[in-house]
Amino acid sequence: MIEVDNLKREFEIWFEQAKFDLKAAKDSLKSANYEWSCFQAQQAAEKALKGFLYLKGEDIILTHSIFKLIKKCMVFDKKFKEIEQCRELDKYYIPTRYANGLPDVIPHEFYTKEDATICVKYAETVISTLERIVNI
Predict the structure, then answer these.
(1) Domain containing 125 — which CATH number?
(2) Rounded-to-integer distance, Cα 1 and Cα 4, Å
């Protein structure tokens, strides 16, 4: 019984942080820090999905890939198939943060409001799907 409680608590920790990361992504979007909004949205989705996997008993998760995390989550619940398009967030993990991550332009000049808006929507989709699946 304690193990189940620990799994639930681990999920809660990761999922709560995911929601704060989503809030940060929205704040960055409002302040026109689009590169950070994209990255924070990716982080929100990653942490939410990892939380679900911890809840299901996974103990070592060595990826940052939304694509791979969704695939792992589908092993436990086929509803994750509905959010496969959120794998697009993988494109925002590295180049949004590094000055040399894009050719001839820094991330702040490259990413747009439209990019950030789409990323936030993907993160919202991941989080709302998890809320439905886990009954939060």
Answers:
(1) 1.20.120.330
(2) 5
pTM for this prediction: 0.95
Instruction: Give the domain extent around 50.
Output: 2-134
The predicted pLDDT at position 135 comes to: 87
| Residue with the two structure tokens 């509905």 | 82
Helix, strand, coil fractions of the chain, as percent rounded to 5? 75, 0, 25
Would you state the pLDDT for residue 76? Answer: 97
Q: Can you tell me the distance from the alpha carbon of 99 to that of 108, in angstroms, rounded to the nearest whole number?
A: 9
Tell me the angle at which helices 113-134 and 2-30 cross, rounded to the nearest 10 degrees: 160
Q: Is the CA virtual torsion 36, 22, 80, 15 positive or negative?
A: positive
